[in-house]
Amino acid sequence: MIIQGKCHTFGNDIDTDAIIPARYLNTSDPEELARHCMEDADPTFAGRVQKGEIIVAGKNFGCGSSREHAPVAIKAAGVAAVIAASFARIFYRNAINIGLPIFESPAAAAGITAGDEVKIDAEKGEIVNLTKGETYQAAPFPPFMQELIAAGGLMPYVARKVKAHV
Fold it and tell me: How far, in Å, CA of 159 to CA of 122, rounded?
């Protein structure tokens, strides 16, 4: 799986309330959540982000409550992947469960700036900053996680596996 796109950067400790504010949690509609993605961190983000772009952040991305709405909002906004120095554990699991590729790389988070064009090889865990000519390493996804993400998340992955055995 190769992901390539322009980067939007955020700092440390971006919590789930900054990703999708609690005032919008009365819906689970992905398109509605996307309209408010990152609103409390950057009110202009949802209007600027283009399909296939990448979020890059510092440490502890997705901290706070365990709401699944946060990665859903990011994915529905068209973000192809998130790179961060570190992720809150529950956000990491929720992101994988809904099929949002995330990559933990402190070096990439420190080296990538807003507007940089980045290419990610999920199989190798390689992140190449095409703008700066730098390469960073993240943990590669094991094959089953690549399948899960390619399927669109845990539920579609399981449905596909069940259908294959029926």
Answer: 23
